[in-house]
Amino acid sequence: MNTLSNFKNVFEMQFRRSSGYIVFFALIQIMMSLGILIGFTYFMPENDPYSILFLATGAPTLILIMTGLVILPQQIGTGKAEGYHEFSRSWPVNRAIILLADTTLWIAITIPGIVISALVAYFHYDMAYSISFSIVPVFFLIALTAIGVGYGIAYLLPPNAAHILTQLIVFAALMFSPINFPMDRLPQWLQTVHSYLPMYSMAEVMRASLASATFTASIGNYMNLVIWCLLGYGGAIFILNRAE
């Protein structure tokens, strides 16, 4: 009961602090989903169903990546500069509860953009999704992995270094990650790199859940995400507790 009460209080604190920009971030996610689904088609000579399927399943993945690996570390960096980070550490609650409340808020921010992307793909391209029963756990697995790694970046690096790294992640995710196109279009060395990083596995499990009749994901993809998720959250909690 005390844990639930602490979670409720911390969530209210985080929500009130974030209330000024929650709508702004949600709008960014919606614009991003429309940019991927519609804007990216201008690069293609024709809108064949296979390529559109990659965009339709890649848009939700990119929304989760941008939220967890880019926006979140930048906001934590701002919080460090403003002293909010030190203030939150003074709260008499377990550090994991602070991360859990913050994670809940960031996951909620991604939902409008993901829903809009699915609706646009369905109505604008007559997309025939074949949704697997695994879509809900896969959504949370990807979201928790992205947010967990984002916490690791934010708490491990100084704010300026984290900001630079997040800008590189934006560039890599949009242009050089096999999220909106097949992996085999990349050079072999980059395919090897992506086999260890989480973004390719995120895209694979999302594709296998939204378009299960066309795509599959391996056990290795799921294990990859679980390992990155544990490393991210474990590292963040360790750093938070060590800094006391």
Q: Would you kindly provide a written description of the structure presented here, covering whatever features stand out?
A:
The chain has helices at residues 2-18, 22-37, 49-82, 84-89, 95-124, 135-156, 159-175, 188-196, 198-210, 219-242. It is mainly α and 244 residues long. The longest helix is centred in the first third of the chain and has 34 residues, at 49-82. It has 10 helices and no strands. The model has no long low-confidence stretch (mean pLDDT 87). α3 packs antiparallel against α7.
Key features?
77% helix; 0% strand; single chain; 244 residues; mainly alpha
Summarize the structure.
This protein has 244 residues and is an all-alpha fold. Helices cover 77% and strands 0% of the residues. The protein is globular and about 55 Å long.
Write down the Rg: 18 Å
Low-confidence stretches: none
Would you tell me the overall average pLDDT?
A: 87
The largest sheet is: none
Give the helix/strand class: mainly alpha
Q: Compute the separation of the termini in Å.
A: 26 Å
**H/E element string?**
HHHHHHHHHH
User: Count of DSSP helices?
Assistant: 10
- Beta-strand residue fraction: under 5%
Q: Using DSSP, what is the number of strands?
A: 0
In percent, how helical is the residue content?
over 70%
What is the approximate shape? globular
